[in-house]
Amino acid sequence: MKSKQVYFRQGVRDGMPIALGYFAVAFTLGIAAKNAGFSAVQAMVESLTNNASAGEYAVFSLAAAGAGYWEVAVMTLVANARYLLMSCALSQKLAPETPLRHRMLLAFDVTDEIFGISIAFPGRLEPWYTYGAMAAAIPGWGLGTYFGVAAGSVLPGRLVSALSVGLYGMFLAIIVPPARKNRVVLGLVLLSFAASFAAGRWALLAGLSSGVKTILLTVVISLGAAILFPVKEEGDA
Questions:
Q1: Is 50 exceeded by the pLDDT of residue 87?
Q2: CA distances from 10 to 74, 126, 142 (A)
């Protein structure tokens, strides 16, 4: 039987490519954080405690718009809600006798990529394998954000503005492939664009902040999609 150290080193090895990818993505998040008024240290701490691109982008965007704390908290919860499902799935991968402390520590950094390599672990998941992946990936995310803010403080304004577009490119890379394969996804993406545009100009919603509007649109469109277009499980007719 392998020792904890062996599993940990294996996790670090598999987590290093993830860390490099996180650094690149977090760098663009750092630019967004700089534009929202965060210092390099503040942004790095935020990244170390909220290792999620969509959730962090929501934080920085709402902070830049002057949103209140509760708006930021609710939107972060909505943006990161999928990790609740991933955590539930990952818990089934653990041995039944796994202590609660390990389950809680693993849930802290259930990102898409770490979830992917953890769920693919042969047999029962060894927590120390995921800890190794987390030890490699989390610093990459935090340092990427730090250097993104630092670069935004010294680079020319036009270059910082150009680098800010990189984050939107990342989100386009996320939504374009599934939208090309599934007409329902494409329709929902277009509906989201149209609804966001309309909400910004609808007099009835004029009294709401941009943060509240984003939360409402996210919940309503997601709920409607889940009801009208449920995803069929394998084996369903």
A1: yes
A2: 36, 11, 22
Instruction: Compute how many other C-beta atoms are within 10 angstroms of the C-beta atom of residue 112.
Output: 14
How many whole angstroms separate alpha carbon 44 and alpha carbon 122?
33
Mean pLDDT of 43-55: 84
Q: What is the 3-state secondary structure (H, E, C) of 20-77?
A: HHHHHHHHHHHHHHHHCCCCHHHHHHHHHHCCCHHHHHHHHHHHHCCCCHHHHHHHHH
Q: Three-state DSSP class for 227?
A: helix
**How is residue 102 written in tokens?**
């390990």
Give dist(CA 11, CA 3) in Å, integer.
13
Q: How far apart (Å, rounded) are the C-alpha atoms in residues 218 and 221?
A: 6
Distance in angstroms (rounded) separating the CA atoms of residues 146 and 29 = 9
| Residue 90: how many other CB atoms lie within 10 Å | 21
Can you give the pLDDT at residue 8? 93
CB 167 within 8 A of CB 33: no
In tens, the pLDDT along 198-230 reads 887 877 776 666 656 766 777 788 788 878 887
Q: pTM, whole model, 2 decimals?
A: 0.67
